[in-house]
Amino acid sequence: MIRRLLLLALLLLMPSLSSCDAEKLVVTRGFTSDEVFRIENSVCTVQEMRVCFVNLKNAYAEVGAPDDIIRENCLSFLSQVKIMNLLAERMNIQIEEPEREKALEAAREYYRSLTEADLAAMDQITEEQIRRMYLEIALADKVYAYAVRDINPEISDDEARTITVEQIMVAKGADPEAARAKITEAAEKIAAGDDFTQTLQEYNEAQSARVSFGTGEGGGVPEAEAFALETGQISEVLETETAFYLLRCVSSFDREQTRENKTRIVERRKQEAFGKLYYSYAEEVTMQLNEPLWEEMTIPEGGHTTASFWTTYEAYFGAK
Q1: What is the 3-state secondary structure (H, E, C) of 255-279?
Q2: What's the start-to-end Cα distance of the chain, in Å?
Q3: Burial 182-212 (b: 16+ CB within 10 A, else e)
Q4: Where do the CATH 3.10.50.40 domains begin and end in the chain?
Q5: Right CATH for 163-252 from 3.40.50.2300, 3.10.50.40, 1.20.120.230, 3.90.180.10
Q6: Could you give the residue range(s) of every CATH 1.10.4030 domain in the chain?
Q7: What's the pLDDT tens digit per position in 24-52?
Q8: C-alpha span between 51 and 49 (Å, rounded)
Q9: Measuring CA to CA, how many Å separate 145 from each of 17, 206, 281, 308?
Q10: Residue 318 zone, left/alpha/beta (φ > 0; ψ -120 to 50; rest)
Q11: Half-sphere exposure of 236 (CA within 13 A, CB side)
């Protein structure tokens, strides 16, 4: 879960505490020199933040993620881990001895992989600090597992059914009658024997000629009518508030897309269950940011190569 959380943050799909709950973030004084932020009695240190900076920078070097995106999403990720650990304390979710052993072994392996340049880039972080970070991530994963424990991973074909259609869409725009005339002309050509695919190249105004979707994912396409079509069947002219459509069903049951949609449905339900638990608690806490320190923190350039912090964690705790 934690690695997925970080990836989602990087793709800007999951809001950070600082962006979604700005009124709960305050700037304050009285920090020690290595404290980046506090949430209640939980502290994030410079070394922890630089572990995230450096590993994320190197892991996504090919993507070329901007430094400001990496910075903000490391802040988001680590604040979420701290909040989840506080939530674990409230819920009496605890780390067990086997997990402590795994954290110890993972920290030893990761620390021994670091070069002098890596250690310098992460402010000479210690093996013990790495161990504590792994323990906090493991505890956050346990909170996530608790939140999604009742989600049924079995999704029926009917619920997840995905269809593929070709579409001719004509937007109503400022002149609905002209749009109606255009789609009617296309329908008449098809009825007279013209090929649907060739006709859509002339008349379709949508960005995509062919679309696949499940229930609730059709965008503007009239879903009820689309799902009622059999493979090869062409619809009548369909009207929505903004456009007219002609649809040809390419596949009334796309097996591969349906299988992928089952995964998406389960994942969405897990995120909803987790979000309900997490955000209800996050609203109760206040994040105190050491703004002067945060503003001057940059991602070190050159020399460091470490990118295995999360893959080492997954090797011992399993990919979530």
Answers
A1: HHHHHHHHHHHHHHHHHHHHHHHHH
A2: 4
A3: bbeebbebbeeeeebeebbeebbbbeeeebb
A4: 163-252
A5: 3.10.50.40
A6: 2-152+263-317
A7: 555 555 688 899 999 999 999 999 999 99
A8: 5
A9: 21, 41, 16, 23
A10: left
A11: 4
- Angle between helix axes 46-59 and 309-317 (nearest 10 degrees) is 90
Written as one string, the DSSP assignment of 172-188 is -TT-HHHHHHHHHHHHH
3-state SS, residue 37:
strand
Per-residue pLDDT tens over the stretch 295-312: 999 998 878 899 999 999
Q: In the numeric block, which tokens belong to residue 301?
A: 């350039």
> Angle of helix 309-317 relative to helix 97-112, nearest 10 degrees?
150
Q: Kindly state the tokens that stand for 11.
A: 């793709």
pTM for the model? 0.73
Q: Which amino acid is it at 163?
A: I
Containing H/E element for 166? strand 163-171
CATH no. of 2-152+263-317: 1.10.4030
